[in-house]
Amino acid sequence: MPTRPFERSAWADAARAASAVAALVWAGSLAAQSGDLAAGAASPPAAAVAPSPISPAAKPTAPAASASKKSWFHYGKDGLDVGSDDGLFSSRINFRSQMRFTEPFESPPGNLDEIDAAGENDLRFRRLRFKMRGHLLKPWIAYKYDLNLLTGNVLGLSFDVGPEWLRLRVGQWRVDYSRERADSSGKQQFADRSIVNRTFTLDRQKGAMAVGRLAKNTWADSEYNAGLFTGHGTGLFRRNLAPGADDGSPMWALRYQWNPLGGGVAFSQSDLLKSRKARLSLAVGAAGNRSAYTRFSSIGGSQLDGFAAGLPGQYSLRQQVEEVAFKRRGLSIQHEWHWKRIFDNVQHRATRLRGSYLQSGYFFHETWSRIPEQLEIAGRVAFVDPDAARPGDHLSETAAAVNWFFRGHGDKLTFDVGRYSVQQNGGTPQSRIGVRGQWDVTF
Fold this sequence. Notes:
The chain is mostly beta strands. The protein has a single domain (5-62, 73-442), classed as Porin. Helices cover 11% and strands 46% of the residues. It is built from five helices and 20 strands. It has helices spanning 5-34, 36-39, 112-117, 179-182, 195-200, and strands at 73-76, 79-83, 89-103, 122-136, 138-148, 154-161, 167-174, 204-214, 222-229, 251-258, 279-291, 295-297, 300-302, 315-328, 331-344, 349-362, 375-385, 394-405, 411-423, 430-442. The strands form two sheets. A 16-stranded antiparallel barrel has the order 3-4-5-6-7-8-9-10-11-14-15-16-17-18-19-20. A two-stranded antiparallel ribbon has the order 12-13. 42% of the residues are buried.
């Protein structure tokens, strides 16, 4: 039986693609490490139109070949597209900026000390990013590159190789686990994620993952991924562990998503398309890790409140998530419920955590045409129980947001206000009101 073209050339093409992208990002990585890019962050960058971590969004395509040679470059509302006439190379380049005002705290408080320490206004560039997405040699050899211009750190560099039903992803990226973390920070309804994210996210990791989609646009439409990671957080071009700090145990993560109405809900909040056909996604996920850490963020591994700095392999984590996402006619709803177990292998003690959020937004123009179609109103409630066996410890959030979309998520203003409550050791809950205003722009 003759060998299919994909099978015959896949790994040779993948190797050539990896070499080409490495050359593209090498100069940027060197400049970032020397601080040159961070120093040049005065011009307002903006966010990319990122592909879904599970289902790839439409990738920029090269200009069609014609009798007369066309330009490799085209700038449009989605950013700068670069592509060869023969279709062997494409890239979409974006800058993204988030300028944010907060009062009285920069981030929602996670304990009583942070409640008491609040009290000052803050205005800053919260995020400055450079992003590049595209393909090399073949449409099924895709790459993504993300650079933090504030710190010069490479946030992500990954390659996808293979057809839609089974792709191999390698590199560093946000682990495909929970929807709220998978949603880009430039495609949210609020200025930032809920209080649940800090406790339960796996964030960005280095590793490899099998990703696929089956029975697309049918009642059986399904998306899956299974991956192994280092479990240390970020650090693609830098070592983020001291010698001897790694016990060699990998992190694993699984996720399954069912789209019973066909199509599903992409990793982007707000129903900007005012979907005439209802979209629904149901998902479950699980993950495990053994390391010195109990939580992760974009800067790497660290500890949740109440946990001491760990030894190599001290903490064993097991966690699960279920989620629902729905969109129709300007209405968007999403929800997650998390469970997490942390076992201290030194103290021989287990801690069980749980948390959940429910979030919804609506364009009231769909109901009353006098209301501007650019206006969206959103609400969110969330809680975290940091120790299910100990009563009297509780974090909660109740928030509302107003969004004005000039150009979708590519240019929008967000104003939100939230009430954040902290209770510890059975004491009286302490609450504070937090206000945030943000301009998010991509070009």
